Amino acid sequence: HFLQSDPEFVAAINTRDAKLRFTRVWAVCKKKRRCENEDRTEKHDEDFAPGMKPVVNNHGGCGNVQPQVRQAALQLKAAFDVVQEDGPKRRETVPITPEMAHGILRRISEEDIRHMGLNSDYARPEWMIITVLPVPPPPVRPSISMDGTGTGMRNEDDLTYKLGDII
């Protein structure tokens, strides 16, 4: 969820062009290092103007520190600063598996997807990770001619070899 009191974020989500909105929301969110969970239940100024101030709901942040995500070749790695009880803080790096990334992307709400400039009917973030890879059965896969004439030796095509590599 987003923080409505952040004017930079409100300006970003009010951008009409979806691509530009996505870029602006990303620019605002990449600076955040903690999922803020401000407690807005305290009302110290209630004595001066009771009932005049609109109630602002807590946006429900978890309060966790957000890792720095880095790409190393074809892997994503999350870097955390871990503070030990008796020693200084140290940097811990954890690989982000496709299952972890898919789970994180699946939990993005419809409202947040709209705020990012995506259309949830056509471009949900979790759809960008392949979870099912349909493989045609061997009789359906085309075979190729080894000598190029069509009458010589037959062999499996390149797709069949690549599917074997994946599986």
TrEMBL record:
SUPFAM superfamilies: beta and beta-prime subunits of DNA dependent RNA-polymerase
EC number: 2.7.7.6
Pfam family, one: RNA_pol_Rpb1_1
Domain RNA polymerase Rpb1: 15-167
Keyword Iron: no
Top-level enzyme category: transferase
A single MF term (Gene Ontology): DNA-directed RNA polymerase activity
GO biological process terms held by the UniProt record: DNA-templated transcription
Record keywords, A-Z: DNA-directed RNA polymerase, Nucleotidyltransferase, Transcription, Transferase
Domain of life: Eukaryota
GO cellular component term, pick one: RNA polymerase II, core complex
Protein name (record): DNA-directed RNA polymerase
Gene this protein is translated from: RPB1
